[in-house]
Write a structure and sequence with these properties.
This protein is mainly alpha-helical. 57% of the residues lie in helices and 7% in strands. It is built from twelve helices and twelve strands. The mean pLDDT is 96.
Length: 410
């Protein structure tokens, strides 16, 4: 009898969580971006908005924001069938095609000025990866053959120019004409090194989505090789945490630990192996994913359910809680629960969501705060919309978590 009662209680909790996630997506995330994201005067989308909804008219328009908006609203349309989401996705697709696409050298510019003219024409592979990811999703949503052709074109450019044929993997940054760049950093916070975990994670993510719609033998081989790179070079010797920066020969250049990337990577590795469809590889990856989720569960969580931002080999070094690791924690812990059936992982996912509800969602202005301090105070100086702040992490969390909860229910 107690077992039946426990199952009934767990089922009720999962249904409530699924409903709460969909309400957040439908009633907060989508309406916020549909209302505040588009740039009605200059086309496309605004570059930056403060937490209290003041638009910075001088802000650059970034490839990352625009590609993530394209992916997000295409995914929202696929999941919900909401035509208003498809309209935003089309707006993003058209603006990328008209303004970001480099007709002379291929690929997309990194930054545009507020009027849509190139401001930074570098080809950062992180950005090209998100372009592939987004175009593949737009093809899934609309059947657009042109979008699929563009995704394949960027794949060929990345493979031709960015792949390290001597040591494998992908180099970080190139000039407009695909010649090597001197400043390789993705942002001012990153190291000026030849390779990074972050770029490889999102190339893997992009190739996974492309393989869904283009079952190409070479693409499948490159995605398989990427998973192998994570196992051999990017994961630490214990196989529990990502190392973040490397030279071209994979010498480690940092002892920084990113709990958000670790829990995100745990489920993205599983997704990649699932799409590849090799059972032996999938078993290996799932074992690795559980080890990573366990490490985050043990070392990255605070008592309030939130995920710390960063650590080093000496312990937590940044106890702030940024919006995106909290979103990835919900998905990553649910993924670990699916794989292991260990209740602690479901409880961690639920605690992450409750922390988001209580601390991260901005009940006054809408959407989510960029970060809160360890005591739960939001940082009002961080933007609500920016080159990096978008509905990709939180919107995807709602979809991914709801799908996992549905599978668990059946």
């Amino acid at each position: 009898m107690r077992g039946e009662e426990s199952q009934t209680k767990n089922g009720t909790t999962r249904r409530k969580l699924s409903r709460a996630l969909m309400e957040e997506l439908r009633n907060d995330i989508i309406p916020f971006w549909r209302t505040h994201g588009p740039d009605a005067e200059r086309g496309g989308f605004i570059g930056q908005m403060s937490n209290d909804l003041k638009v910075d008219q001088a802000a650059s328009k970034g490839l990352i924001l625009n590609a993530r908006l394209l992916w997000s609203f295409a995914a929202f349309y696929l999941h919900l069938g909401d035509e208003s989401c498809l309209a935003i996705a089309r707006r993003a697709y058209d603006y990328i095609e008209e303004r970001f696409w480099d007709v002379e050298h291929g690929g997309a510019f990194w930054l545009l000025d507020p009027d849509g003219q190139p401001r930074d024409m570098k080809k950062k592979i992180y950005g090209q990866a998100f372009l592939v990811y987004a175009l593949s999703e737009y093809h899934r949503a609309t059947g657009s053959e042109k979008a699929l052709c563009r995704a394949r074109e960027v794949f060929e450019l990345v493979e031709a120019h960015a792949r390290d044929v001597d040591h494998d993997g992908y180099l970080e940054t190139f000039e407009r004409d695909w010649q090597p760049a001197e400043d390789l950093r993705l942002s001012d916070d990153d190291l000026n090194e030849k390779k990074s975990m972050n770029t490889h994670l999102h190339v893997m993510e992009a190739y996974t989505n492309l393989l869904r719609v283009w079952p190409d033998t070479r693409l499948r081989a490159r995605l398989t090789a990427l998973i192998d790179l994570f196992m051999r070079h990017i994961l630490d010797p214990r196989g529990r945490q990502f190392r973040l920066f490397f030279d071209e020969a994979w010498t480690v250049k940092s002892d920084h630990i990113s709990f958000g990337h670790d829990i995100e990577g745990s489920w993205l590795l599983c997704e990649a192996a699932e799409v590849i469809g090799n059972p032996r590889l999938l078993d290996r990856v799932r074992e690795q994913a559980l080890a990573m989720a366990d490490a985050v569960w043990r070392e990255g969580r605070d008592a309030d359910g939130g995920l710390f931002y960063a650590a080093s080999s000496r312990g937590v070094k940044d106890s702030d809680k940024h919006w995106w690791p909290q979103a990835e924690a919900v998905v990553g812990f649910l993924n670990a629960f699916e794989l292991s059936k260990e209740t602690r992982f479901f409880e961690a996912a639920l605690a992450s969501w409750r922390f988001i509800e209580n601390r991260i969602i901005d009940r006054r202005h809408g959407e989510w705060f960029w970060r809160v301090s360890r005591d739960g105070a939001p940082d009002p100086n961080q933007p609500k919309i920016s080159e990096w702040k978008c509905p990709y992490h939180n919107g995807r969390m709602c979809i991914e978590a709801a799908e996992r909860l549905e599978r668990l229910a059946t």
